[in-house]
Amino acid sequence: MLYDLHLHTALSPCAEDDMTPASVIGLARLAGAGFAAVTDHNSALNLPAAEIAAREYGIRLLPGIEVNSAEEIHLLCYFPSVENALKMGETIYEKLPAVHYDPKIWGAQLVMDENDAVIGRVDKLLTAACSLDIYEVKRLCESLGGLCVPAHAEKDSYSLLSVLGFCPDDLDFPILELADPDKYPALVSRGFLPPGREIISSSDAHNLAAVGSRLRELPETSALLTLP
């Protein structure tokens, strides 16, 4: 099964406004994906629309959120249901700073329905760091039946390695996302990442052209397939 498990919609302020849930899911399916995850920054509010679109387009949806921890490490939190993702999103939203948010500067944060209609806007800046550290985010995700995956773990910013420099032994992540999965053996040999982990790599799409641009095949043994 081909997948793209890191997709943003117009709810993420850094994504284009035409990234509607239906368009994102539809384009992922058109690209050949059979499994897709909508993972907006610190919120799950566009997942209900994405779930309806996934049903219509015949693609399997993995509900997700890309959480920005207190250390500013991005973590992909995947859940067995949209309801569980929404619960996570409510908690994360409470933990976001109440800073002034100007959509003219940061971009719109649009909540949309399955027909691409805007049904709401979010007041807090969703790309901000929440007050939960990486351990707390992982525990909260797992308490809701989810899997926590470090996003683009080897990138130069907002990543596990850019912030901590390595993966601590007491952070047992069975799955890691890498922007370039071919780097995994070298990162293991140098002691930056633990061996024997499942590696995923997705588009991290913030515009329509990027959706489904980096499809990969998910192993039948993947723990992600046990969620939705």
According to CATH, the homologous superfamily is: Metal-dependent hydrolases
CATH topology heading: TIM Barrel
Rounded to the nearest angstrom, the radius of gyration is 16 Å
The CATH architecture category equals: Alpha-Beta Barrel
Distance between the termini: 14 Å
Output the structural class. alpha/beta
| Main β sheet profile | 6 strands, mixed
Account of the 3D structure:
By secondary structure, this protein is of the alpha/beta class. Helices cover about 25% and strands about 20% of the residues. It has one domain: TIM Barrel. Strand 2 (about 35-40), helix 2 (about 45-55) and strand 3 form a beta-alpha-beta unit. Helix 1 runs parallel beside helix 2. The chain is globular, with a radius of gyration of 16 Å.
Q: Gist?
A:
Helix content is 26%, strand content 20%. The chain contains seven helices and ten strands. It has helices spanning 21-31, 47-57, 82-94, 103-106, 134-143, 160-163, 184-189, and strands at residues 2-7, 35-41, 60-68, 74-78, 110-112, 118-121, 147-150, 175-177, 198-200, 216-217.
List keywords for this structure.
228 residues; alpha/beta; six-stranded mixed sheet; 7 helices; 10 strands
Secondary-structure map:
Elements: E1 2-7, H1 21-31, E2 35-41, H2 47-57, E3 60-68, E4 74-78, H3 82-94, H4 103-106, E5 110-112, E6 118-121, H5 134-143, E7 147-150, H6 160-163, E8 175-177, H7 184-189, E9 198-200, E10 216-217
Helix pairs in contact: 1-2
